Amino acid sequence: MLAILINLVLSIGAYLNRKLTGLGAITASIVGYLYVLFGGWPAWFLLIFFFGASIIISLIKKTLALNHDDNSLTQTEVSKGRSAKQVLANSILGLGCLAGYYYQGNPLWWVLMAASIANSSADTWASEIGIISSKSPLYLVGGQEVAPGLSGGVSILGNLASLGGAFYIASLAGLLTNFGISFSAFLLIFLSGCLCSIIDSLMGQFLQAIYQDDQTQVLYESPGPDRHLIRGYPWMTNNLVNLLSNLLVLGLDFLLMFTFFN
Questions:
Q1: Are 204 and 239 in contact (CB under 8 A)?
Q2: Which residues are bridge partners to 111 per DSSP?
Q3: Which domain holds residue 9?
């Protein structure tokens, strides 16, 4: 009952402060409760610290008065608060890992959950902090300049932020667990986040849908009037890129952990 109440209060507060949409708040309440149910309060705190840091970084970015294309998919969704899809993209894989931990009791599942959150954290920090870089981001393959905020672009500042986001979650995971994690597990969580950020950028460059305005030639991540698809697949949204890159790296983590750590 306490877990339900706390998650409701936090989700309502986030909704009133426009950090979550209505459906996003409902989804976050359910996900938060399930994290407590399957992984205990340490898993819940890890998730909350991730979302909390993401909100703080977003506020700092807004304070710096960085104005980018308000019509892009990412910008529009953030201005209205995180949607249910965004909440699930950043938490559903970790929840699946916690279900494995709950039913099998193997702490490796808990470490995998932490790795999934580190993956999301690294990507989020890279996106939110990298956009304030004074230098234009570049594509990983080809090295062409990319408009700030457009998926697929990387910068030195964004890469450093990615390392920070992964290290942040890996460190918290070591502090919050009641069974402790080894240095090898810490390293896996950290490197998992770093790798996921790279995979996310590559998928953003080659697979994510990018549209161009017929009049202004400006690039967008969402469809709209007078926009045509110039790259990627129309169904490959930013949320799906985040989810699939996380899933891909988490699958590699699974193979490594249950082969060498079990």
A1: no
A2: none
A3: 2-261
